[in-house]
Fold these 4 entries.
Entry 1:
Amino acid sequence: MHFLANLFRTFHLVFLVLNVASVAGITKAAAVQTHFGPMCDLSNDNVSLWLPSDINTRGGRPLLEPTAPHPSLVILAVGVQNYTCLDNGTYFSFGAIMELFDISCIPQSARASFTTFVSELWAAAPANTTGWDLVGASGVLLHSFALGQHYWVADPLAPASGALNPMWDFRSTSLPRVADPQTAYLVGYRTGIVPAPTDPARDAEWVTLAPLVVDGQPDGLLADQVFRLNTNGGMPPTNSCVPGSPEIHVKSTLNFWMYGGAWATPS
Ligand SMILES: *[C@@H]1O[C@H](CO)[C@@H](O)[C@H](O)[C@H]1NC(C)=O
Ligand SMILES: *[C@@H]1O[C@H](CO)[C@@H](O)[C@H](O)[C@H]1NC(C)=O
Ligand SMILES: *[C@@H]1O[C@H](CO)[C@@H](O)[C@H](O)[C@H]1NC(C)=O
Ligand SMILES: *[C@@H]1O[C@H](CO)[C@@H](O)[C@H](O)[C@H]1NC(C)=O
């Protein structure tokens, strides 16, 4: 678990440099919380200033505008994206398992380079360290920063179709003991998807997502909107695959910016 030890040290360094005094306060949070904000103030963050101005000009479906002036949470995700091989020899995105960490204390201008730095640590981790190893160990090691997991679930609107939807799930961490479990998760669907700006063959697409609506209600109240950006890795190999070959897991390190929802920063 050298990778996790290094990640843990990295977080502590960041927090020492930023002199964040509030970390201890967060772990002493009340037994039942109805609301939970980021570790550091995000009211100066503006995703529109961060996105390249030509982000929506290289194909795909345009990213949407943020639904709130400032994000309610900014997350580092570390894990794998899964691919299966279709009968026609092309890779098909089939879920992911990623561990989620609060990086609101890292200034907006430093988040991309921090994320790339973590992706280099993750790339250097032993080949047999899986996304699930990370999930199992980091909740204990990094409890001040660990938020929960990102994975994919059967589409609640068509459970038998084989279609999957992304889930952000904070219910497993000891950190947020929320009264209403619906405030601690979100099942989403894509509203926009564009190629990653610098290395689209290697880095997963940048995406906007909205809550999936099931029986007239959003499936989870964690956020009203999610951006996926600052992606490092995650795309499948560019060559064709052999139909019937086993699922592959591609390492991926990226950011989610969440807007609105139950965890919005009090303004
Ligand atoms: C964010 O930046 C964009 C682009 O400069 C600007 O139009 C917008 O007003 C800013 N939003 C906030 C909430 O400051
Ligand atoms: C392979 O099959 C999938 C699913 O039917 C389809 O979406 C994709 O366009 C196909 N790719 C090629 C190169 O034929
Ligand atoms: C993706 O890969 C992980 C192993 O790294 C596995 O646990 C998970 O079930 C896979 N499938 C989906 C749909 O996420
Ligand atoms: C991973 O590989 C290393 C060395 O090759 C080995 O010592 C270790 O037990 C393996 N871990 C797992 C979880 O398989």
Entry 2:
Amino acid sequence: MPCAHTFTDGTPCAHPADGERCLFHTPPDERDASDAAVRDAFVEAVESRSPGRKRFDGAQFGVLELSSRVIDSKDNHEVRLDGADIEELRLPNASVREPVSLTGARIDRVSAPEATFERSVTLDGATLGAGPHEFTDATFQGKLLLTGCQVAGPVTFEGAAFGRKVDCTDARFEAGLDLEGCHLPSLRVSGATVEGGLQLLDAELDRLEVRNLSPDGCLVDCTRATVRSGTLAQPATGATAFDLRRATVGDVAFAFADPAAFDHYGILRTEFEGFPFADYRETLRAFGWRLHGFTARERESSTADLELTYLKAKNGATAVGDNDDASQFFVREMRYRRRRYRDRLADASLPLDRRFDSGGRWLTNRLLGLLAGYGERPSRVLGLALAVLTFFTAAYAAFGVTAGLSESIYFSIVTFTTLGYGDIVPPTDVTRLLAATEAICGAFLTALFVFTLGRRVTR
Ligand SMILES: [Zn+2]
């Protein structure tokens, strides 16, 4: 006798029934069969190679124990469990070779560590209960669709590998989503709610799309992760925090309407491989090219970390041919290097010679920074040269070396450029010393100017 149950699309259930309904469509408290007997009937039906018998829409299961089993019917028909009710789905070490649809299903707990899913798995609109839901070290060779999925308990995919995309659009995770150490070709978390945060520590993602994530302040932890492309967008209201410390960031778009949101991207010792710095020129300018605003709040970053942060940013900007931003990051790198020297100079635990060495380096750094912006600011050298010329022009007039403004300017320039025609000669020891000093300054500043100009041109 066939089962009296009819699926929502009007197709009658194809499973045989002893009474009115088949084993799967009889509520667990009304059937005599044990969970193991239901499981055996399920496996047999899946392996029957009849597409109709692979439909379990609206079925009710207790514990579906499939540990270490191979679920394979050697055809391409989907195992359909749409709207099914499963108390617990156990798949540790199982190998599922068929596509599985659990659209709109309700499952209290899923345990699938080290399971392999060779085809797509659809949990569209499914409801997962208190869990925990474990997919640790699982392999998903097909797509994993979690669109509109409602999950009450914690979900972990730690160490899992994915062959195709994972889509969490409009899903809701009430106790966090853990994808630590996962390999993902594409992860989409759009319009989703992730209470407890999205964990992507050490993960490797070819593409990551995060848009309109809630709640406000939700943390997407990408520490030490690799994100090759994608979009990390701020929601329309509130903010999402992206922790990118020690991560590798490729051609990724930081999308935000309010430039102040730039502080929600945590950058510290972050590698940039193809990041389009030039797209953020205005924001970077507004932030004074300060990348570590996010982490500055925690006060845990050392000057060495900060120096490395800007070195990596400079290298990243140089690699994409963005020399203007590279120059700004270089100035910051030098500034934090100076602080590192200063800290070493002040560190009483270091041997004296190392402290002296650091002191010398600090002084050189300080002078180069002040005089030439670490070789990045030719205009600063030019301004300094003008100041020197003006000072000595005034000094020659005051000491009576020259008569009148034009002669003072002429003598100052001739001395600065070390032309030394000899038509005007300083009369006293003091004025001779003045002229010699200007000549030294002139030679030094000319050399510095040529050096900074050269740097700017070759950048
Ligand atoms: Zn049935």
Entry 3:
Amino acid sequence: MALNDRVFKALDGFRIELPSWGFANTGTRFGKFLQPAAASTIEEKFSDAGQVHALTGVCPTLALHVLWDLPDGPASAADIARLSSRSGVRAGSINPNLFQDQQYKHGSYGNPDPAVRAAAHAHVADSIAIARAVSSRDISLWFADGSNYPGTANIRQRRQWFAEGLRAAHADLTSGQRLLVEYKPFEPAFYHTDIADWGMALLLAREAGPQARVLVDTGHHYLSQNIEQIVAWLLAEDMLGGFHFNDRRYADDDLTLGSIDPYQVFRIFHEIRAFAFDNGAEPDIAYMVDQSHNLKGKIEAMIQTVCVAQELYAKASLVDHATLATAQRRTDLVRAESILQDAFATDVRPAIREWRVAHKLPADPQQAFRDSGYLERITAERGSRSAGVSSYA
Ligand SMILES: [Mn+2]
């Protein structure tokens, strides 16, 4: 297949979800640098996401955070429907918040206090009901639970509480819904984290029930961990539910996808394309962005992220899997490795520009955004009010 055909086919099948919190003012624990154009309300977040989708054509859904975006619970559904039709963007994954409330100081599902565990379970049940009300499939669970000092937490007891809590949450799902279990090795807890890695997430998702899957946040690994191998194993186990994409240099830095190590993202996409080739079917994976842009303009950063994701996905689609399989079988190491390197080195940007034009999208979404006047308009409209920090993501 010609390069353009491969790229067109890959991009036709690639969608990526944006996070509502990526458009809001955020920061680090040392300070928040406010941007006059940052979104404060759910209306503004849908509007900004709608701009990114209108210019890129591949971001039809917006991940929502229950505490920050849906304080009225399922009653917010009518509002969401109205905002969806206005912005052209639907509600995406629903993210409960089990870490910000004072009661979660010592954990949520793993809290020794049964009343706090019950509150956490009730919040997840509400989140599942919200997801149903806004016609959203995935409920995405990340737990900050853990401990800071050896001996202070009963690790096995807490594992048991997590298994029970996830089973109960799974029992609330309707047939089309999915529970995604995210893992993270450390932060905010610095001695142990209850769901620290993909193995723990996999076991807990299996215990939860057949509609639970593992969510891989690329920033949630120890340095130098082979993330694409984890992806390959989860694919083989039919347990890969989705991604939270971001990049990192040191820890969970939430930097722009591909800004530090684009080859790693390529290798992750390669494992997915190889799995699809071997199985003759596309795996059902929710691609999502989980980044916070403290210093970059938020909409610009999101457009940049989406364009980089498309480029790396398109490059991975150039790998000739049949030739690669032959080289692997013959242990022709340099040839096999070169097949990946050649695909990664190919400039797919001209083909992507053609794909955009063919889909009546701007050839250069970033330039189109700069030319649109949208940023100047929202900066004037939103900058006059006293901006607040609406999230800690
Ligand atoms: Mn995440």
Entry 4:
Amino acid sequence: MPKPEPRPRICDYEGSNYRTEFWERKDRDYEDRVERIALRRLLPPNGQRLLELGAGFGRLTNEYYTYKQVILVDYSLSQLQYAQENFGRSDRFIYVAADAYKLPFRPGVFDAATMIRVIHHMTDVPRVLTEIRRVMTPNAPFILEHANKQNIKAIFRYLIKKQGWNPFDLAPVEFVELNFDFHPAYITRELSRAGFVVRRRLPVSFFRVGALKEHLPTDVLASLDSLLQYTGLMVTPSIFVQAASDQRSAFSTTDDEDDIFACPETGAPLHREGDTLVSKATGLRWAIRDGIYDFKAPLE
Ligand SMILES: C[S@@+](CC[C@H](N)C(=O)[O-])C[C@H]1O[C@@H](n2cnc3c(N)ncnc32)[C@H](O)[C@@H]1O
């Protein structure tokens, strides 16, 4: 029997204070504003079913209100619980705790996907991109944000020999455990290998510098950033990519919410029994806890 592939390491946000510590206490209004500008430029304004991968506490979920249904996926149950408090329980917002490397969905059920501030935690980029591609319909937009190793600060530090790693080299750099910076050309190459066509890229966050953010009004910085995004100068700490899935994948639209799911371990269909989803093929059972589908581990 073939050995199961080792599971890639996961950056676990379970129980973390990401929302209060990273976004609120550190005043990242500027970053939030310019990311929304880029997202609005790249994501088609409406569609049927959007996958928000690594949704966290739902910081950006209100950008997707015009989509008929949004599926928020995150490995952290506690982040999803917070999102659920905000967006409520309904057919429009579905909360799914799952690993991005093993998505619990049938092929071709999403006609749009976003992954913002998440891939920098991924040790196996080809694997996660292939998995995302699997669950998308053909020609579906995928908006991916990635941390850019070829940013001005890294180039400067490298030139004055204050930094060992080369920002022009294609290989990802793990600058802190489970935090990677990527070369834009590496991401483009891996997207294409996974079955995506890259359509457009925007450099974002030109002014992510403490002193500037402290002394200049956020409105001014955000307006300037908005203009500079059009320059195509890929030297910012963050890059937004608009890709589209190619013709290869399945196309299985369904209106039944439970019908989108498949066993993350085997891909087998699942049927609902009360507050569980069950695979007839393997007997594996997955819990639905207070409205959140939990695919992190099967029930004993
Ligand atoms: C920096 S946060 C970004 C959250 C949100 N996208 C935002 O921009 O505010 C990264 C998120 O990715 C999630 N994550 C990391 N690895 C994951 C994996 N393998 N599968 C699913 N989610 C993952 C974490 O739980 C966390 O909520």
